[in-house]
Structure formats: C-alpha cells, structure tokens
Design brief:
- The chain is α/β, with parallel strands linked by helices.
- It is built from 14 helices and eight strands.
- It has helices spanning 9-19, 22-29, 36-47, 91-102, 116-122, 138-150, 168-173, 183-190, 193-202, 228-237, 250-258, 280-291, 306-314, 324-356, and strands spanning 76-78, 106-108, 127-131, 154-158, 241-247, 263-266, 297-299, 319-322.
- Helix 6 (138-150) links the parallel strand 3 (127-131) and strand 4 (154-158).
Length: 367
Amino acid sequence: MGASAIHSYDDARRLARRRLPWMVFDYIDGAAGNGVAEARNLAALREIELQTRVLVNVTNRDLRVPVFDHAGVSPFGISPMGMCNLSGPGADLMLARMAAKHQVPHGVSTVASTTLEKIIEVAEGHAWFQLYFSGDGSGTKKLVQRAKSAGYRTLVMTLDVPEVGRRPRELRRGFKMPFRIGPMQFIDFALHPQWSISSLLAGAPDLANFQQDGFTFDRTESRALADWDFLKELRDSWDGNLVAKGVTHVEDAKRLKAEGVDAIQVSSHGGRQLDSAPPPILALPKIRAALGDDYPLFYDTGIRSGEDVVKAYAMGASYVFFGRALQFAIAAGGEAGLAQYWNLITEEVGLTLAQMGRVTLPLNGKT
C-alpha cells in the first residue's frame, strides 16, 4: 500500500493517519475550536453545483492557467504550509520539484523546514515567499530583505493570523516547535517507527529560516501589531508582486486593492484560525464582483479534488492553491504519492471541464 492506493483525498488522509505519529497528524489535520469552520468550508464547497452541457467538442482541453510570471502548466499551485517536512523527510523539496516541473507557484512558509534559499533554487524560481508579521516587525523586515536577496519576485503577506488560533487537537498532543519530547510523545513516536526512524536519519524537522544569527521566531508570539501602516511600509519596500492572503471581507479587499496590493488570496487558513469564520468560497464571488473581472484573485481553503478546483474557478478565482492535501499525499506515499495525487487532481479537472462542455480555465465566475 502506498502511492498506487491513492485515488482520492480520503485515501491519502487515511494512509497518512496510519503512518504519521498522532501529534504530527493532528497538527496537519487539525482546525480551530471544534472544527466547525472547517466542516462548513467543506459543506459549502460540496453544495456548489456545476452545470453539465452536451454535444460540445471537448477533445482539446487546455488546463494551463498563467499566474504572474509562471506558465501554470497545472491549474493549481502549492499553498504555503509550515513544517512540511513533518509529513515526510524532504517534503519541502518534493513540493519544490513539483512546482518546477509544472511551472506553478510554490508558497514557501516563513516557518518552512527548509531554507527559503534552497527551496527557490530547487523550484527553479517557481516560489513565492509567505510572510508572517511577528513581534515588533523588525524580524519580519529582515526576512523581506532576505527573500529579495534570494531572488523571490512575489511576497505573500498572511493577514488572518493576528494571534495563533486555538487548535485543541495540537494542544492535547503537546505539539510545540521545536519538539519537546515527554512520555506521551515518546510512546507516540515509538508506535510509528517508520516515520520516527526516517525522520531521525534525515534530522528532526526544525524552523530552518531561523537557524542563522539574527533570525528568531516564536510560533506563539503575538502578531497583533500588524496594521494598515505596516502594509503601506511593506508595499513601499517591496518592488515585486505583493499578495494579501487570508481575506474574506469585501471592504478589506477593496482597500487592499486601493493600497496597491497586486493580488488577494481569499482564504480562512483552512479553518485553522476562527471556528466561526464564514466559508471563504462564498465570499469569493462577492469579492470578485467588488474588484472587477481583471483583478488577480486567488483561492485556497477546503480544496480536496479536481471538481473543487473547478468550483473555485467557477466562483471567481483567477488561480487556486492546494494545502494540507499535498502533505497527506507525501505522508502516504512519499514523492511518488505526491505525483500520484497531483496527476489524479489534474485528471479530475480535465474530466470536470469535459462534463461542463468547457475546454479552458478560468471560468469567469460561470458555473
């Protein structure tokens, strides 16, 4: 059982749950509070209907969706995810190689377990750096300059984490970075020897961007000081593309556009921040209507299948991003598992378009 057994998100998640330590699985799979927001996200996506059409020649379907300076051979990219190497040794670079192969953006998290310099090198330039504001912002500004020096041309500022949301599943397992190994964690790792041994041999995952002098990060540190003045300062100092991620309110989106942000990523952090947050897929068409047809509007949250990708385009997305699903594919089958999942999602997108009588994306808000 491995890559060949992955035929859906549920397959990848089931295999990952079997192989990962409980602490790691609950970190990747967990959500804020009781998981209500995550469930509502999935339910809202599930309820979207796609109209089928018949007797349309759909032989030549083109799934390419260019985004900024990426050809976008695949119609979806990789959302920034912290500590990806927890899903399997070398996961960050597996994702980077996939981004290079398909010429899609790879979101590189502030708290990646591989340095931002190494990831953009392996991704052959197909990488965006995701930025968290932290503390008084001084460390954040250093990271911006470091990303610029490394050759990043797109910066993604995550805005929906003024404080880290409470995720009870993480708390119950004692998840902390760096790891603190107590009796519960020792038993957990011992019961999952395949993961534990491979991770030990590869070196325990850590916050790689903070292993240099002058760079520190506390995952629990307040990010509450970030405001519109900081955004303006960031816009003035960054001459590449600036993406604002974590937006669900129309008025916020309108102001972000007015402040010179190049694109907005509609997202609720996968339901990991506020358990009462509205489903971002329902906010997407409202924001599209407010910002116009031509403004770059990206989407992540709750994407599990090729049909979900098409639904996001139908609701107004210019480009779509996958998150935790890719980590489960890696945990389930390594790099082969990632390739298997990527290919099946791509195939599902093509099949869905055929059923709809369409041959290209985006869909310009048309279901």
